[in-house]
Amino acid sequence: xxxxxxxxxxxxxxxxxxxxxxxxxxxxxxxxxxxxxxxxxxxxxxxxxxxxxxxxxxxxxxxxxxxxxxxxxxxxxxxxxxxxxxxxxxxxxxxxxxxxxxxxxxxxxxxxxxxxxxxxxxxxxxxxxxxxxxxxxxxxxxxxxxxxxxxxxxxxxxxxxxxxxxxxxxxxxxxxxxxxxxxxxxxxxxxxxxxxxxxxxxxxxxxxxxxxxxxxxxxxxxxxxxxxxxxxxxxxxxxxxxxxxxxxxxxxxxxxxxxxxxxxxxxxxxxxxxxxxxxxxxxxxxxxxxxxxxxxxxxxxxxxxxxxxxxxxxxxxxxxxxxxxxxxxxxxxxxxxxxxxxxxxxxxxxxxxxxxxxxxxxxxxxxxxxxxxxxxxxxxxxxxxxxxxxxxxxxxxxxxxxxxxxxxxxxxxxxxxxxxxxxxxxxxxxxxxxxxxxxxxxxxxxxxxxxxxxxxxxxxxxxxxxxxxxxxxxxxxxxxxxxxxxxxx
Length: 489
Ligand code: NDP
Known about the structure:
By secondary structure, the protein is α/β, with parallel strands linked by helices. It has 15 helices and 20 strands.
């Protein structure tokens, strides 16, 4: 069956191109999928436009739209095993992690299903005078271009697709060229749940060909993008020509601040998962460890010992604790990043060279790496590696910790570890980041907003704002007893 989904039909790419998808853990062929070009993207946009302008979905009662999202959640639960396996084969991540992702994805659809079904209706405005009726209604934005990355392919798609549909939009989804299979699976489930033709469209292919039209075509009303900072700037620039609504979820260089009074063992344990989960390919990875001076040596020794114990392996290796990087090109980038750090004076405490284990030879593995004695001017502290690399900086005072933490163009997430509750809240309040964890790292729930400050982007996913992102507020004013005003008479 072909892999592009346009106007309710599975269709091949117009020029017949296919792309091979290989598992980054060992290079095995996962499949070959249709590779869309600009014409395919244009056809998908036309289908979404038609479905939005003439189809039933935007006018379907919110309760019915919500019910459809709840059916999708149930279908995701039914197909969890197959989808998790597909996600692991495309990304190389451990199967158990893909299974956790699938639970979160179903929860996302359930949340937006319930929110959609219970919401809508708008609000009455008190105009203070008799004879008028004023209300604000929330309408869908229109045709949405949804562009997503490879690290959490289906999760990132779900965070956009569920609220976009809940609000009544039509969309064209373009997942990363490297990880298409679970997006195909999701679109099948949307069709099975009864979504009208043309509302959901899928193009697979490279960003410059299949993605650019979603940001630039005048028939698209909104582009919601998750990916890297450089691509995000391009998307925003392309969207400017037609003044599209834009939502950007970009990268992060997230501080993990550990004060000397933190619970030592717990903070060490979380410092490891903060940065090495999914081999660091997490936008909210705690890649900058800031440790209070008096704790530094003991804490970093323990983190290094823990990092050395992390076993690498493929998705179905039960002993593995983390997997490969997504591609050879990405591993090259991470290697160059570490080399730059060492040239700038960072001290390599562990990792830093490809694993010698012959069992890992065919995958894009890179070991957990700790760079100590880093400083705020270094490129490794400023740039996102999106790999398993931790930089360590020291601080003496709370003010210094906050200053170092905020000394970044990014503002996605951060954490503070201390047993002093007042200090925890003071620091949390001063961090310029969209998410702050106190004595924790990584958890999120669909009920709470997710997104960045500064150059980590703007707009919010999840939570009530995640639905509002895909809505336009419209004020409807009615004069109940119109009479001439006489202003110019
Ligand atoms: P990219 O920015 O390279 O790609 C993201 C998506 O954009 C892909 O689908 C890509 O297509 C597409 N794309 C590439 N160029 C264009 C273009 N000119 N116009 C439109 N679309 C384009 O990011 P990665 O896939 O490498 O993902 C890693 C990045 O994503 C990291 O920087 C990370 O921090 C960020 N990220 C942020 C998250 C957040 O919530 N803030 C969550 C997850 C990741 P293709 O790859 O197919 O060419």
